[in-house]
Structures are given as structure tokens and as C-alpha cells.
């Protein structure tokens, strides 16, 4: 019995390995072994500007002045944001900034405190 994963698109058990890719002969779908490992982990990986891993509940510090869209407010450099929540998408941090309210931030503009 083969220990190769089933096809993620059609669930076919007839997958085979071609160099560093898995291939499904039934639907023609190709995917890498890293993709299959990420799907099995099913955990969101978010890194700050320095490359440190972030997790839910962390405290981060803003490293750049950020304009708040639709407002004249600015989130200043050095602002600490407590109890962040990681989400999927372009803005991958969901948080509440003191004095401004709830907002989403990009992880590239924060560092772990």
C-alpha cells in the first residue's frame, strides 16, 4: 500500500511522485510536498518584521507611522498593541488599538514586544 497522499482536488488514491511534486493521473492536478504538509498542519503562520513567529494573544509594537483609512488619525511608531488575533488575508492581524479602536494590521509593520 502506498503512503502517498490522496489528490486534494478529486480524492484519487492513484497519485504518484514526480521529483518534488505529487501528480494525480485522473484529474491532472499537481502539488508539492510542502503544500501537502501545510494543509495537514492547518495552522496559520505569521511572522513579524524581524521574522519572529506571532501567535494569538501576543503583544506587538508598531514600527512605522500608519495612517488610518477614512480618518485623519495616525497610529504612531512605538504604539503597543496587546492581545492580537491572527487571521487569513492581506492584513493578517486583527486587534484593538487604544484611542483608535478595532483595526487590522499587516504583520510587516509590527515587531513582537
From TrEMBL:
<dbReference type="InterPro" id="IPR004624">
    <property type="entry name" value="YjdM"/>
</dbReference>
<comment type="similarity">
    <text>Belongs to the YjdM family.</text>
</comment>
<dbReference type="Pfam" id="PF08274">
    <property type="entry name" value="Zn_Ribbon_YjdM"/>
</dbReference>
<dbReference type="Pfam" id="PF03831">
    <property type="entry name" value="YjdM"/>
</dbReference>
<dbReference type="InterPro" id="IPR013988">
    <property type="entry name" value="YjdM_C"/>
</dbReference>
<feature type="domain" description="Protein YjdM C-terminal">
    <location>
        <begin position="46"/>
        <end position="113"/>
    </location>
</feature>
<dbReference type="InterPro" id="IPR013987">
    <property type="entry name" value="YjdM_N"/>
</dbReference>
<feature type="domain" description="Protein YjdM N-terminal">
    <location>
        <begin position="4"/>
        <end position="32"/>
    </location>
</feature>
<protein>
    <recommendedName>
        <fullName>Protein YjdM</fullName>
    </recommendedName>
</protein>
